């Protein structure tokens, strides 16, 4: 259907600050992206991982091109997606760069193995997904990276880590299932309430 609206030039009016405030309402699962080989490794905490397609298994992640992980991802063309458990906030903080840790120092205090791609994979997360880069779309400050899943490991843990309203939030399938049954809506247990 053709309408006059389609022909009207729409100028973006949302400021970055307003957009950032709106996006704080979106709950994101917390992952650590890992890149590199052997001692030449780094990684970053992200909430932008999403499934792209189930068959073939592919995912996307949005990565800041100023981050220290970006050159390693381009060089080695592979990465790990490590989905964190509710009690891995310390790992999320190590990999968000706020504590000043860089490169390989972010990996201490947890157990890692090398995936078939060569990228480090976390032992003891909810899942560790080994990917090779399929395609990269660079836009503005970031790049959307499409990853083809090579291999993955899952744990039996039922408690995941989300980020919402600027805070880490634990979501436990067993504990929150009770409230879920009561109200038919997912609920989260905020870490600052524990
Ligand atoms: C909860 C959370 C989610 C984040 N999500 C993303 C993301 O999706 N993409 C991104 O580029 N940076 C994201 N960041 C920021 C990166 O973790 C941070 O900029 C990066 O680790 C800094 O890396 P560098 O010190 O290696 O440059 C997120 C940070 C936090 C705390």
From TrEMBL:
Entry keyword Oxidoreductase: yes
Superkingdom as given in the UniProt entry: Bacteria
SUPFAM superfamilies linked: FMN-binding split barrel
GO molecular function terms attached to this record: FMN binding; riboflavin reductase (NADPH) activity
All copies of domain Flavin reductase like, residue ranges: 23-170
InterPro entries the UniProt entry points to: Flavin_Rdtase-like_dom, NADH-dep_flavin_reductase, Split_barrel_FMN-bd
Keywords: Oxidoreductase
Family to which this protein belongs: Belongs to the non-flavoprotein flavin reductase family.
Name of the featured protein: Flavin reductase (DIM6/NTAB) family NADH-FMN oxidoreductase RutF
Organism of this sequence: Rhodopseudomonas rhenobacensis
